[in-house]
Amino acid sequence: MWEYTDKVREHFLNPRNVGEMKDASAVGEVGSLACGDALKLFLKIDDNDRIVDATFQTFGCASAIASSSALTELLKGRTLDEAAEITDKEIADYLGGLPEEKMHCSVMGHEALDVAIKTYRGEPIEAKEHEGNIVCHCFGVTDEMILRTIEENGLTTVEEVTHYTKAGGGCGNCIDEIQLLLDEATGKVAACEFPDDRPHPNLSNIERMQLVMKVLNEEIRPRLKQDGGDVELIDIDGHFVKVALRGMCTSCPSSKLTLKNVVEKALQEQVEPEISVVEVSK
């Protein structure tokens, strides 16, 4: 049982500003119903760039609901510039604190707000979503997001990073990379790209096929199956690997990110860097 404050309980049992806003000026959506926590934030903005109303729809735990409710209350009456200054910590503090293991819920609210504001201002969202390299494949968390969260919240341990971002909370294969990012952020090591000195020899078609199947079956498919999804190899044409998503992945709004940041990235790293993954219908 998590230790929740009275204010968290209040905003969970009686959440404010719940529901879809039909005439919203901007909408920010993060996460997915198929893959875990999800939040959809609606903003009504006047001609002076001031938020006059905010509502939300969320799928998640008590902390996710309470954090979303708190965020909408914090947003009302602020200009977009003022709203953009809201931090994960401010959301948590408004609720009197959150369990450390649930701090990622306040981070999700911050991300939804960022998407909503950028949408309203016509700024590119796609580039932001793809910014950085995926560190945690289980939850699709990038190095840029981890570094930002470390800096904004003064994190010092891998456990804290997991609490705030979920990174490292799945298979655990990214723990070492998270520690490197922590060392970089705290000045223990110089900023650098993670080295990849594994050889990428020229492969025959048969060798490439065998390696692709090995990585798919031993690494990628088990990850996807954790969330009810799957991927099927359809064909290999040179460096083009044709696959079809199965299970929950077929309806997941993040399916294209899954193909790019999970399937293709793993094959490029472990088979050949020239590989491109293409989704096809069986």
How can the largest sheet be summarized? Answer: 3 strands, antiparallel
Uncertain segments are: 190-199
Counted beta strands: 8
Mean of residue pLDDT values: 83
- Strand fraction band? 15-25%
Shape: globular
Radius of gyration: 20 Å
Discrete helix count:
11
Which terms summarize this structure?
single chain, alpha+beta, 8 strands
Brief synopsis:
By secondary structure, this protein is an alpha+beta fold. It has 11 helices and 8 strands. β1 and β2 (38-45) form a beta hairpin.
Q: Could you explain the architecture of this structure?
A:
This protein is an alpha+beta fold. The chain is 44% helix and 17% strand. It is built from eleven helices and eight strands. It has helices at 6-13, 62-75, 80-84, 88-94, 104-121, 126-129, 143-153, 158-165, 175-185, 205-225, 255-270, and strands spanning 26-31, 38-45, 51-59, 134-136, 141-142, 229-237, 240-247, 276-279. The strands form three sheets. It has a three-stranded antiparallel β-sheet with strand order 1-2-3. A three-stranded mixed β-sheet has the order 6-7-8, with helices on one face. The protein has a two-stranded antiparallel ribbon with strand order 4-5. Helix 4 (88-94) packs across helix 5 (104-121).
Helices and strands in order:
Elements: H1 6-13, E1 26-31, E2 38-45, E3 51-59, H2 62-75, H3 80-84, H4 88-94, H5 104-121, H6 126-129, E4 134-136, E5 141-142, H7 143-153, H8 158-165, H9 175-185, H10 205-225, E6 229-237, E7 240-247, H11 255-270, E8 276-279
Helix pairs in contact: 1-2, 2-5, 4-5, 5-8, 7-9, 10-11
